[in-house]
Task: inverse folding
């Protein structure tokens, strides 16, 4: 097959071909990776020159002028020949930088470029995710505020329970997302640079280059770390940085996956009840066989991908556990998959969730109907207390309500009818003293407790402050490819 059709002859990851944003796909691309390698070689040369090694301005300038123009075909040919990706790119860089060739990668090991680039990609990956998570929180906070006092049935065990509000339920989702925000921020800030550590982490090669001057070796590490945009490097490493760093990074993403799965499962359950729906385009088809269907496909996609995100954390856990002594190479192939896929998957589910939260549709009349079906049962305690205040006997009233409730329940469960408990109460002379109070006793807003006040305080104290650092990035809209 010729031309553009070639791409359909081999597997393509749907994470990139179907879902991921351009910025996250680029973050883990070969171009980002290998241009970062070249930048790291430039940082190393600059720092070594500044500290007295015989490296010229012309050599550094030559490297800088060729930082971006990578001959990927040549690099691939070199790797086939050398069976070593870093040396292949050293040779490719040296080919276009003949003057600088003798000092490229001077004193370094492969992990100088490999591990440090991975840390840059992790850092930049978090920087892409954090504003996206902030936008989801912002949209959901607006939703919670709008529906702070909209009564709705609460559910425990997925059985009707005491009333809450639509906005309060959204705050349960928000609380988990705010925790994820703090987790991602902490993981991002905890990242350090591997720095300039040498083959087994002892810096022996650099100590030799600087003729035993320990201070210059430490300064070299510090200078390169700062050039790469990190505040600190790890003081001790083996050949690699500790693979527990990957564990920490992917654990917070897996935890985010659990949050999104719970939120989107709730939305799917509520969609079945027809209380809440995700956005639905005019020409969107829900089912090829059933034209009336409006499937929650965005929420389903989030759940599907969130399961993958949660599963991926087992990779770095197992990898970290089997890094023998100063390192072993059985981490490499695994990390090429698990690190990018975790960030790509998190990126996709946040973009999709932003789209969902920007267009959630609430159906108050359906919610009210569901409340009417269940509220008479929930109001029985209020009715009993009102009767006692009116001079009735609690035990007598309890028995009356128990009998009428069972009769009403039989109509609902056995006959498929509506809950007629209220009509039965109104028809029973025993309850004459409180008939004038029934509307008040059955007002849904008297059953929601402090839910509206909790929403207001929670949004003010714990949600809005978290969004402050991301105000300039709040207006980005998501054009979701379905």
Result:
């Amino acid at each position: 097959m010729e031309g553009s059709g070639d791409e359909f002859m081999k597997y393509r990851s749907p994470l990139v071909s179907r879902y991921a944003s351009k910025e996250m796909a680029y973050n883990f691309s070969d171009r980002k990776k290998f241009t970062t390698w070249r930048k790291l070689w430039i940082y190393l040369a600059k720092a070594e020159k500044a500290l007295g090694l015989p490296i010229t301005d012309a050599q550094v300038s030559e490297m800088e002028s060729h930082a971006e123009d990578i001959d990927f075909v040549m690099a691939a040919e070199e790797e086939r020949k050398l069976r070593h990706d870093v040396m292949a790119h050293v040779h490719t860089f040296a080919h276009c930088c003949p003057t600088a060739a003798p000092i490229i990668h001077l004193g370094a090991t492969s992990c100088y470029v490999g591990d440090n680039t991975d840390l840059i990609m992790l850092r930049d990956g978090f920087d892409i995710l954090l504003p996206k998570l902030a936008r989801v929180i912002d949209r959901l906070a607006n939703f919670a505020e709008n529906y702070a006092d909209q009564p709705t049935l609460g559910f425990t065990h997925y059985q009707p329970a005491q009333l809450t509000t639509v906005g309060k339920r959204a705050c349960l989702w928000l609380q988990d997302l705010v925790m994820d925000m703090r987790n991602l921020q902490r993981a991002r800030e905890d990242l350090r640079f591997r720095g300039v550590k040498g083959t087994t982490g002892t810096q022996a090669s650099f100590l030799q280059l600087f003729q035993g001057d320990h201070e210059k070796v430490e300064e070299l590490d510090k200078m390169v770390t700062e050039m790469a945009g990190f505040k600190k490097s790890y003081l001790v490493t083996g050949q690699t940085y500790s693979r527990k760093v990957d564990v920490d990074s992917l654990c917070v993403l897996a935890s985010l996956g659990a949050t999104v799965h719970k939120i989107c499962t709730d939305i799917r359950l509520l969609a079945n009840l027809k209380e809440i729906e995700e956005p639905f385009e005019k020409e969107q088809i829900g089912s090829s066989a059933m034209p009336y269907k409006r499937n929650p496909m965005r929420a389903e996609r989030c759940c599907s991908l969130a399961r993958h995100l949660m599963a991926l954390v087992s990779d770095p856990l197992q990898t970290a556990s089997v890094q023998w002594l100063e390192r072993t190479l059985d981490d490499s192939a695994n990390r090429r998959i698990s690190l990018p896929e975790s960030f790509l998957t998190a990126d996709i589910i946040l973009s999709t969730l932003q789209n969902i939260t920007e267009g959630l549709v609430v159906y108050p009349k359906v919610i009210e109907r569901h409340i009417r079906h269940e509220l008479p049962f929930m109001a029985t305690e209020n009715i009993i207390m009102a009767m006692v205040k009116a001079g009735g006997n609690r035990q007598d009233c309890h028995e009356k309500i128990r009998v009428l409730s069972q009769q009403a329940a039989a109509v609902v469960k056995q006959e498929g009818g509506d809950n007629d408990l209220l009509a039965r109460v109104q028809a029973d002379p025993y309850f004459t003293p409180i008939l004038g109070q029934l509307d008040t006793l059955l007002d849904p807003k008297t059953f929601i407790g402090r839910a509206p006040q909790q929403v207001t305080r929670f949004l003010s104290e714990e949600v809005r402050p978290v969004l402050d650092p991301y105000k300039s990035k709040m207006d980005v809209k998501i054009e979701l490819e379905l």
About this structure: Confidence is low (pLDDT under 50) at residues 284-292.
